[in-house]
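Notebook entry, structure prediction.
Reason for the run: the old model in the group folder had no record of what sequence produced it. Starting over properly, with the input documented here first.
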Amino acid sequence: MRKLLIATHNQGKIREYQTLLAGLPLTVTSLKAEGIDDDVEETGETFRENACLKAETYAGMAGIWTWAEDSGLEVAALAGRPGVYSARYAGPGATDRDRYEKLLDELRQSAERPWTARFRCVVAIALPNHEIYTVEETVEGVITDQPRGEHGFGYDPIFLLPELGKTMAELPAEVKNQISHRGKAAQKAKALLLEKLAQAG
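New structure, fully documented this time:
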C-alpha cells in the first residue's frame, strides 16, 4: 500500500490526521517513523506558501507522497495577527497557554469586543515528481477571554463558535473534525488524494 507522510512534528495534529484520514487506501506515516528530524523553516508570507514549502521539501527527503499543512488564527482586531506566526507567537519554547495568554493580553489592552476571528488551514499534497496540489478552508468565530475546554490544542480554548456556544476545546473530536478548518480542508484533500490514487493506478 502506498505511504502518505504527514509532515508535522506536532503530535496533536498527527492524532487528528490519523482519525481524519482513516479509511483511505494509504498507510499514514510520520516524520519520526521515517527517521526525519529536520525542521523546514517556514519562510512564506502566507499559509499556502508555507504548506507548499513543507510538502515539497519533505516529499523530496522521504521520496513518498507528502501531506503538509499550515494553519493558524487570524484576529480582525489585530489586523489578521497572529496569522502565519500563530505557532511562534510567544517565542521559542512557548506553550499553547503562553500563546493564547499573550493574544488575550493584547486584545484586552487595545480592542473593543466582539473579537472576531478566523481559523484558516491550507493543505498541500506533494508527489515526489514535484507535482503539488493545495486546498484551503476556514472557520469563523469569536475570541473569548475565558479559556474553556480540555480538548484540542493551540488556540482552541479561546476560540468560541457562537452558533454552538462552545469553544473548539469543548467539542469532542468527532464534532470538531466535522466543522473545524482542518477537518474541512482534510475532507477536500482526501477527495483529491482519491482522485490522484485512481490516476496513479
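Summary: Residues 31 and 38 are 9 Å apart (CA to CA).
The old model has been moved to the deprecated folder.
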